[in-house]
Every structure is written in structure tokens, then in C-alpha cells.
Amino acid sequence: YVRTVVSRFLCVYLSLLIAKNNIFLMVRKLSIIIPVYNEEQTIGVILSKIANIELIKSIQKEIIIVNDSSTDGTVDQILIFKENHPYLDIKYYENNLNLGKGASIHTGISWASGDYVIIQDADLEYDPQEYNILLKPIIDGFADVVYGSRFMGGNAHRVLFFWHSIGNKLLTFLSNLFTNLNLTDMETCYKIFRTNLIKGIDLKEKRFGFEPEVTAKIAKIPGIRIYEVGISYYGRTYDEGKKIGLKDGLRAIICILKYSI
């Protein structure tokens, strides 16, 4: 009788232990890569927004900040936030030289340990509250990559530069022409990838050429499932800190040709 009771107890205990481990293994994580350069005024705000969002399906957050040798008080703001939020999974890395946004993203990807990766600019142009919109097609099993489009849907968009919008549409058109995709916003910051997929791509561009390069390379993956969802856009003026310019647009054209042909 004692052996029977002990045996049953052990069976129940082992069953509960296995169930607990399975639940633990099923917990998924989103790696949020933040390349940052001279964003002293906004980095604390964007980190607070990320900290406050609850992701669908109880997905956890991993915040990876890559500082591209900022010369203002960006580092101080990051360290203060990190110290005040010890419960957050925050990883901080710093480039010894100013290498560019693309190089910082490469570093972030290499350190990402989540199931999914998303790029988040350190300014306030994109709203982390919309992560769940981007995650949903992947979580539901339809997509491997999701782009957040500033040009579709009924979300809020700041009215800014006419020639910027023309430039974005031209670059997206050229990219689609060579990749045979039908994106509406190739240059968007918000792109979410399955981590194993993005880690398997050999990325070269160290500055703003990341967007056309990664688009050209994922388009070549057999069977890739790319989705687009509408997002908001709270654009900045140059006086407010916007950094991308004409030379970056010209480089994007070169990247479209270089990585598509």
C-alpha cells in the first residue's frame, strides 16, 4: 500500500513538473532593438512607452539598446532608466566609433535571444503601442516578416514634407520592381522578423541602406511570407532632430540595385 501511494505521488509530481517546464518553454520573447545616436531628449520617453506595453499572448520583452557613440547626454538617460527599472530585461551596448544605424542594428541582431525581432528608432516617430498589430500575423501563423506601413490604414500621420513622401514612394516602387513585392512602405522603421530568419541573413549596410538591403535579401528567401499592416507615424522635422537626407536616398537607390540584381 505504501509503495502504491508513493508511486502515485511521484507520478503526479513528475506530471506537474513536466507541465511546468512545458509552460516555461512555451513563453515567447520579443527582442526590441533600439539603435540610438544623440537622442537625449527622447530615449527615456520611448523606453517608458516600451516598458508600459503589454504584449499579446504573454510575450516577454527583451530591450537591446545599441548606442552609436552619442556625444550628448543619451548615455546618462539610458543608465538612469536602466537603474530605475531593474525588473526589465535591458541589454546595453556601445559602438566605439559612430558606425551608423545599420551597424547598430547588426549588433542588436547578433545579441537577440527572443523568438522575434523588431527595430525601434530612439525618437518618437513610431508608437510601441502598435507592436501587437505587427506581432499578430506572425503569432497567428500567417507571416514570417511583417512591415508596418505609414501609407495604409486609418492611423494618425503627421503632415510634413511633400518631397519626402515622393522619395519614399519612389524608393518603394523601385524596390518592388526588382523584388516583385507589392509593399507600400519599404523604408519603414517598423519591421518584425522571426529571429532565426534575420540571423540567417548576411547584412552589410552600416547606415541607412539597411532597409533596402534587408528587403531585397528577404525577398529572395524561398517561401517567405511577408505581410504589411497599417501603423501611425509622428514624423519629426530637421529642427526636431530628423537625420535622414538626400544622400541617404541616393544610397538607398544604389542598395536596391546592388542587392536585387
Uncertain runs are: none
Shape: globular
Largest sheet: 7 strands, mixed
Q: What strand order characterises the main sheet?
A: 3-2-1-4-6-5-7
Radius of gyration: 21 Å
How far apart the termini lie comes to: 76 Å
Percent range for helical residues?
40-55%
Number of strands: 7
Mean pLDDT figure:
88
Please provide the ordered H/E string of secondary-structure elements: HEHEHEHEHEHEHHEH
Q: What percentage of the residues does DSSP assign to strands (E)? A: 5-15%
Number of helices: 9
- Alpha-beta content class: alpha/beta
Question: Would you write up a description of this structure?
Answer:
The protein is of the alpha/beta class. Helix content is 44%, strand content 15%. It is built from nine helices and seven strands. A seven-stranded mixed beta sheet has the order 3-2-1-4-6-5-7, sandwiched between helices. Helix 6 runs parallel beside helix 8 and helix 8 (210-219) runs parallel beside helix 9 (246-260). The radius of gyration is 21 Å and the shape is globular.
Summarize the structure in short.
The chain has helices at 2-26, 43-52, 74-84, 101-111, 131-139, 162-179, 195-199, 210-219, 246-260, and strands spanning 29-36, 60-67, 90-94, 116-119, 145-149, 191-194, 226-230.
